[in-house]
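Sequence, please.
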């Protein structure tokens, strides 16, 4: 089965021009039965998007038969991403599911924000073997 993704969810800085920080998370659940709960948690967290300072937008994605799910999020800068990571709702989700699988995360800076280019780049990363090391785990400042 191919990768499934949600519709684009715009953030308050959706019209940002110039460079952006792209973050891709890739969670592989140990058990297929955990995937629905992980997906529900992602959709609940997505509700915050229109209010998150520095959020440009995001997609949720899944490869259910591979027990994989995650997000592709676009940020104005590293500070905005770090603030999101510290958000209590995000911290709670990570605590709840961290021991139920493995997570990979990668970030990169795109010189210009083009939604389709960002998605194509993210998809290339996600097509890579889930056991390979991430290309980058750095959050730019």
């Amino acid at each position: 089965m191919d990768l499934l993704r949600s519709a684009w969810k715009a953030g308050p800085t959706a019209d940002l021009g110039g460079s952006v920080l792209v973050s891709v998370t890739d969670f592989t659940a140990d058990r297929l039965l955990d995937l629905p709960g992980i997906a529900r948690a992602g959709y609940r967290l997505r509700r915050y998007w229109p209010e998150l300072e520095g959020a440009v937008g995001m997609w949720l994605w899944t490869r259910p038969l591979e027990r994989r799910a995650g997000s592709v999020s676009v940020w104005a800068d590293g500070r905005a991403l770090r603030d999101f990571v510290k958000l209590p709702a995000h911290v709670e989700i990570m605590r709840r599911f961290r021991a139920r699988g493995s997570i990979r995360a990668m970030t990169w800076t795109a010189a210009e924000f083009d939604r389709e280019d960002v998605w194509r780049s993210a998809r290339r990363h996600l097509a890579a073997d889930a056991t390979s090391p991430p290309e980058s785990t750095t959050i730019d400042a």
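The domain at 4-127 is CATH 3.30.70.100 (Alpha-Beta Plaits).
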